[in-house]
Amino acid sequence: MSNVYITKSSTYLPNDPVSNDEMETHLGLVNNTPSKARALILRNNQIKTRYYALDKNGQPTHTNAQITAAAINGLFDENFKKEDMELLSCGTTSADQIQPSHASMVHGELNINKSVEVNTAMGLCNSGMNALNYGFLSVKAGVKENAVCVGSERFSSWMTADKFDHEAENLKLLEERPIVAFKREFLRWMLSDGAGAFLLENKPRENATSLRIEWIDFYSYAHQIEACMYSGCEKQEDGSLKSWADYPSDEWLKQSIFALKQDTKILDKYILVKGAESLRTSFDKHQLDPESVDHVLAHISSGYFKDGLKEEFANVGLDFPWEKWFYNLSEVGNIGAGSIFIAVEQLMNSGKLKKGEKILLCVPESGRFAYSCALLTVC
Predict the structure, then answer these.
(1) What is the pTM of this model?
(2) CA 126 to CA 216: how far, in whole Å?
(3) Cα gap 4→295, rounded to integer Å
């Protein structure tokens, strides 16, 4: 079995950073009314700037496939050309279409005159780690000599006001207050766009920082907990999900069926506890000493969870001091499947890493509470 190294990383963030005060300029006003929930949500999530693949009129400037291809193009150089790529593995929540697969669309955007293996991991935040794992295992098994793995999102076009105006109008007709449900509006002020890409190879690069992937673990708690974050469906009173395909088509807009929604009560109850439980399992499995970890990169959706996550980790014997934690949420926002890739890229190219240091990656997914973690060694 081969060792597997991240030999190069690249990030693409579309357009200029968008401040909190500029968000509704890009996303628009639902029912032509400024949001009353926005200030509270932003105060809790502690995001100051983010990136949108939209102009100031709310018109799209990039597709998800184009954002992803732009990040991948940053990997190509004299040591690794487009034609050298053997495997393309892409993870996203927000593909541009239901079919064809996201990775196929990205392959088409790369303008490469070569057939390559493509793999698409669909889901929520863990889809990026799923894509990474596919590339990792392919190179480790010797099936491929290299793999390009990407996590990306283009959430902004899902969050524009026109996607919710029909629901507000429907509420008016029902003589209710035309305010979109909090579970739908919550994510309008949480999510943003971007992509991060890794090049995986079976040898480290000379005279450059490489990161050896030691292991990647995954955990799901869907056997214990109902869905928390969902789209293309609606949650029923018993906690089950009713598919969009089982609704009349005229209800799709009236109820914002395709909007990304989150059950914040369940989120608060389980997201940190199960994250600590899963990480403790991996530390025991690999007989890893917490003191041997030098950098902790934990994807969080909101600054609201920052202190709580550290506390829950400490409760299971994983008390990492603050100086080991690396966060970029306030500057780049929550980019879902792309967040952990972008954080690794920033740390990898910061010039701060030393050979032999250990980097821990932790990614939660609130969809139905799934988690991933990984350990990297600086080479």
Answers:
(1) 0.95
(2) 12
(3) 19
Q: What is the pLDDT of residues 192-233, one digit of tens each?
A: 999 999 999 999 999 999 999 999 999 999 999 999 999 999
Assess whether the region 5-211 and the region 213-378 belong to the same CATH fold: yes
| CATH code 3.40.47.10 for 213-378 | yes
What is the secondary structure of 262-303 as a DSSP string?
Answer: E-HHHHHHHHHHHHHHHHHHHHHHTT--GGG--EEEE--S-G
Q: Where are the domains of the chain?
A: 5-211, 213-378
CA 332, distance to chain mean position in Å, is 12
Question: In whole angstroms, how far apart are CA 140 and each of 1, 135, 202?
Answer: 5, 8, 7
Up-side HSE of residue 141: CA atoms within 13 Å toward CB?
8
User: What is the per-residue pLDDT across 232-243, written as a single tens digit (0 to 9) for each?
Assistant: 999 999 999 999
The CATH class for the domain spanning 5-211 reads: alpha beta
Q: Name the token pair of 59.
A: 């018109």
- Rounded CA-CA distance 105/124 in Å is 19
Q: 124: which residues sit within 8 A by CB, 6+ positions away? A: 93, 229, 336, 337, 365, 366, 367, 370
Q: Residues near 119 by Cβ (< 8 Å), separated by ≥ 6?
A: 87, 88, 89, 90, 103, 131, 134, 135
d(CA 13, CA 52): 8
